[in-house]
């Protein structure tokens, strides 16, 4: 396949008028292209957006971010923990990304087709997660936040707990909390849940699915200490006299005032701390590292050394804004899907380790997310009640 044939294929793909043989030839052609030829492909795609505005979504920004990510990886030194991939494999990632983007054309087409019976009807019953959480008070009693009305919920010492009209949970500390012994509360989100919390100092925390945050009802000591599991995005209120510390797994994070994300699920292979603004310090034992905005500290289970790397922070915090931004193999993607849709996942056959790159709304039903992944032609799914079977 030459460049002209590649352009013709892209246009036919957008019109849903292509053969599997040409599809395969296009993938093989793309893998052989040097990096400088990827940008012209983006320009061709932009032209198609203008030519087929109904059939193709406006994915130019996503494609550009993929290109920027690949360029950034080439500039970076070899990481300590993450393996260094060859250019051919990186281009394979780009190919997967391109196919995800072009799949948008056929997505509109398939939406117009009659609904599929049996298996597809079962998939439609699996809805995305939402604002669901349980608050555990100091005495062990619990409040299911998604089922209670807005307004005052409880009193913990001099601190009032209020469910705001925005759906946030807010802790309003009284004026006489200084010197008092605070009680501890814990916010839990289930699989398929997400919740936003405003702590007594004004710090905002957003919990992703299957996460928890344990915190005092008033910050009265020399430090503001909290404990977490799962994944939490923080916007810490600045207070130079009272550092904010997070205990997660067997490491600690210390900040004065900043925005960052911590991912520490037990079924993941590492803990990731990603800094958006400000500065944080991560520590494990005697090992202490400071992050700059745009950097991520990765700590692999069983290791004692942090891998500090520059990343696309949007990928790590997109979840809080209601989006999946994928750049991972199918196993990593399915762990995210399982937590958000509260499903189990099984694998059948020889599953590829190739990365899938894409940007998909978390408000979509799971069938739509899986359909977009299937349109790459590299992976297939079968739904059995609340179980997703992944097949090559």
From TrEMBL:
Q: Report the superkingdom from the record.
A: Bacteria
Keywords linked to the UniProt accession: Membrane, Transmembrane, Transmembrane helix
The record's section on InterPro entries has: FecR, FecR_C, Ferrdict_sens_TM
What parts of the sequence cross the membrane? 91-109
Q: Which residues form the FecR protein domain?
A: 186-280
Stretches assigned to the Protein FecR C-terminal domain? 324-390
Report what the protein is called.
Answer: FecR domain-containing protein
Species the sequence originates in: Chitinophaga defluvii
